[in-house]
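To illustrate the input format used throughout this study, we show a single complete record. The first block contains the structure-token representation of the backbone; no residue identities are included at this stage. The design step must infer an amino acid for every position from geometry alone.
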């Protein structure tokens, strides 16, 4: 059973602006915290295993040469979706459905340049187009295919709907930052969301 405090954190996501934190390193400076406002349409539900889907371990997007290991994240103390520790991995929100299950599975990744000049994993996410394929490999070796339905850019203060929450269909939503970097706000100006649907036979 989950504690009352934990359930309260989930409910806070539903009724208030949720902050998703992205981190990049610039030169030799400490990581800079970027803020992304996401407001799920409905309550985030704890995942239950459906259709024998294994835990996801790898994200592959051939169109933009992404082959990235998946980290598992949940909520930060302030009720935000956490982020991957490094620039080359992506993070799956493990309190939601596994990719391929019914509902909105969410993966985020970093954007920008790191201290050693390395490009973050989702720097080319904006190059995806409707119809492009996204592949998730799970621990059993099974591969689930998703097809890009829509790509949207939002301002950093704009509330975003339909990212989390239940659905009768299987979706995979990818999130990152983009746009111009503001030193004053320590944030990029825009947020990019790629919406995709599970490919059916």
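Output of the design step:
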């Amino acid at each position: 059973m989950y504690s009352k405090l934990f359930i309260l954190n989930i409910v806070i996501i539903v009724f208030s602006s949720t902050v998703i934190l992205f981190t990049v390193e610039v030169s030799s400076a400490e990581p800079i915290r970027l803020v992304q406002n996401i407001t799920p349409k409905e309550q985030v539900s704890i995942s239950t295993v459906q259709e024998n889907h294994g835990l996801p371990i790898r994200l592959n997007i051939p169109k933009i040469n992404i082959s990235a290991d998946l980290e598992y994240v949940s909520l930060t103390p302030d009720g935000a979706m956490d982020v991957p520790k490094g620039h080359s991995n992506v993070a799956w929100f493990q309190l939601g459905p596994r990719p391929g299950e019914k509902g909105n599975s969410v993966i985020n990744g970093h954007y920008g340049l790191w201290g050693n000049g390395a490009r973050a994993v989702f720097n080319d996410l904006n190059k995806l187009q409707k119809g492009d394929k996204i592949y998730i490999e799970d621990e059993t070796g099974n591969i689930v295919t998703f097809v890009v339905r829509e790509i949207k850019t939002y301002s950093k203060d704009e509330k975003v709907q339909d990212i989390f929450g239940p659905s009768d269909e299987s979706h995979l939503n990818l999130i990152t930052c983009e746009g111009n970097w503001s030193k004053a706000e320590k944030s990029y100006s825009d947020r990019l969301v790629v919406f995709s649907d599970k490919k059916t036979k």
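Structural context for interpreting the output: The chain has one domain: 4-198. The chain has a mean pLDDT of 77.
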